Amino acid sequence: LDLIKDDTCGVQLYQRFEQLEYEYEASVERKRNALAAADAGEGPVKKPRQQEIRRATIEEVKAMKYGMNERFNKDTNTRRRKDKHNLQITRKLGDATLHYAHGRYKEAVSVLSEVVVQAPKLPDPFHILGLVYNSMGEKKKATDCCMIAAFLSPKESSLWKLLVTWSIEQGNTEQAWFCLNKAISADPGDITLRYHHASLYMEIGEYQKAADSYYQIVQVCPDNVEALQTATMLYKKCGQFERTIGILEDYLKDHPPKDDPSVVEMLVSVYMERNEHSKALERIEHARRVFSCGEEFPLNLTIREGICHAHLGDLEKAEFYFSTLQKDNAKLRMGLVMAVANSFMSLQHYESALKYYLMLEGCASNNDLISVKIARCYSALKKSASAIQFYYKALQAREHDVDTRLTLTSLLMEENRDDEALALLSPPPNSALSNETDVDGSQPWWLNVKVKLKLSHIYKTKRMLEAYVEVMYPIIHESLTIDSMHQKVKQRKRLTESELLERVQVLGDRQTDSVFGNFRQPASKNVILKAHRAKKSLQKMATSKEEMKCAALAAGLDWESDDSEDEVPEPPL
């Protein structure tokens, strides 16, 4: 109870127990090392003689003969007192539980405090006391009581789970981690705890540790495909492709591909991301052989097989595998159609890519993206008119897409449609009313610098100088203003002549009459560099004064020089 009341130095109760555990383990380790060292240094053990053994046995028999009755009576009395003591504690625990159930929390606390004094190593009174304090709203005391109960019965995972929940509710993340690790140690087979452990790592962005946690779930439950896929996905996100491939390959050694084709698909996708299409194709063909003749091979793997053939240069065989993708079923298989089209696009087979992109026109929810991709294919095929048509269609849905607008402008200029290009980049008539940024922080397209520069370039090409200046002047003015605001000129300290002379002393004349005449005063390289700069400054100062003196005398003026504290700017570094 003193541990619950005492809150000195801001050290939490679990941290104290953690320190005690560490000290105990260190002590055990020291004793183990000492015993090992003693055993290593011992000679052969001398065996006791038969006479010593016989004498010890006779002594034991005498003790048993004359002292058995006395010892038996003593043990019986002790046992009776313990039974009576345990009966009293059990009765008090029952009374405290009844008080707790009927809402008499103060009476429950009073009874449980007595039990704790009588049996401080019993976890049950601390557990019930924690539940009572929790019902009273004293969360800190409740947590501390249950923490003591958990340390007194470390294998009771339910207590650690309760502490995890309470720690999260109180926002004590470190304590939650501690209790969660204890709960997993108490019940290693509880997969829910391990899932919670891994998800907490994901929430804080520790993807490597989250991947390790999910992989531990796989080791406990080798058939848990969900944990396997999450672990490999996170390892891949961390850039550990070799680890990802190894885990998936090991799983497939013990599980046929037809049990869960999604694992094969994940492995194939990893190979394809690494441009190892031949290995991906080998894995797909192996899976196809495993499937029996009557079973339908997964369509996802069939399409990926075709993509691998396309990357390996066999376009005819690739089209054979893509034959199941048609315009009438494209809406149901949009992801596969998009994957095929993107693959052909990356391979610069624009005709084939265009064929599959056109299947998706009007089907996908992001039709503007499809329109842009179709336009790019047409542009690559030198079909500018069709490309312009689809860029216009995409721009209707994404008005503020500056890149699409600029690309369309360039195509219009190539087709000598300058007026359309100017209209495309000119601000709308009511643009003066909406020049501010939007709620999401983005600015209107006509305020984008790229748009303004492109528009000024068109004006300059068409020799519309007034319009060119009208667009460029605000950009140049703003640029100069920003430069002047951000330009930070470091004001260097102005050194006086006396300070310069002090620096030059490091380079003072050598003392020829001394034994150390050939040695200068020891100084760092930086100090010597400053001394040389100071010497040059003094020479410039002397030359400047001499010139001013000559000019004053030539003009018939009296020359007065204040040599006391002439300030000069510190030479630049």
UniProtKB/TrEMBL annotation:
A GO CC term attached to the entry: transcription factor TFIIIC complex
Keyword annotations from UniProtKB, A to Z: TPR repeat
Family annotation (InterPro entries): Tfc4/TFIIIC-102/Sfc4, TPR-like_helical_dom_sf, TPR_rpt
Top-level taxonomic group: Eukaryota
Renumbered ranges of TPR repeats: 191-224
Matching SUPFAM superfamilies: TPR-like (SSF48452)
One of the Pfam families matching this protein, by short name: TPR_8
Database matches in PROSITE patterns: TPR (PS50005)
Residues in coiled coil: none
GO biological process: transcription by RNA polymerase III
Name of the protein in question: Uncharacterized protein
Organism, scientific name: Opuntia streptacantha
Taxonomic classification: Eukaryota, Viridiplantae, Streptophyta, Embryophyta, Tracheophyta
